[in-house]
Hints:
single chain, about 35% helix, 8 strands, eight-stranded mixed beta sheet, alpha/beta
Amino acid sequence: MKIEWNNxxxxxxxxxxxxxxxxxxxxxxxxxxxxxxxxxxxxxFLRKFPIRFLVYDCWHKLGLRGVRAGLFCEDYxxxxxxxxxxxxxxxxxxxxxxxxxQHEFILHPExxxxxxxxxxxxxxxxxxxxxxxLIEVDELTKNPKETFDFLRLRKRWPGIERTKFIAASxxxxxxxxxxxxxxxxxxxxxxxxxxxxxxxxxxxxxxxxYLPESYYKTLSALPEKLRKAYRDGNWDVFExxxxxxxxxxxxxxxxx
Length: 256
């Protein structure tokens, strides 16, 4: 099927202004973090952007076929709920085919045959021999810094000089501090050789015109720390600890 790329992409991606800003930032920076509140469409962006990268950047511009992109979540249930369950409704059959056994969406040859591999991070060492031209992590703050360091080793592809790392997340979780240091505060270790490539784009509920007003009211009704984090995208809510509201839940469930 022959398509007029720009018109098709604009209609199919249906990106809103903040998502378009993130897309444009990826053209310039190699480590883009799209983070902040709940509900601005972060996961949607991560799911759709690899199509543009594989079809336009890799195949149309560079003539590369079979390029692989990886979309990672912290575990399989999260991967299924956030992304795999949406593929049948968002990815047309004429564009590619989804392999449930491999958890991969494979573009048809006429679109370059690229692959979006949906993976979990329960054991990052599983990907020791893998290569990805694009790596995306949904909810990056649910992972330790070591996971990010390991994934950087897998970010490479023959013929592509500037491979990409994209992440999205809310404040909080075990990775809050290190994510904040790198993308929010720009506080890099001495050995960081790509500091100029890190770019942060703040996401807020107001960025998503499709978000129901009732959900914004729900965010506003949360306890103060959670409200500031998930409604306001505030990265200064806490330092070096979990939310107290979650600590209680963890303690209650730990004997099980």
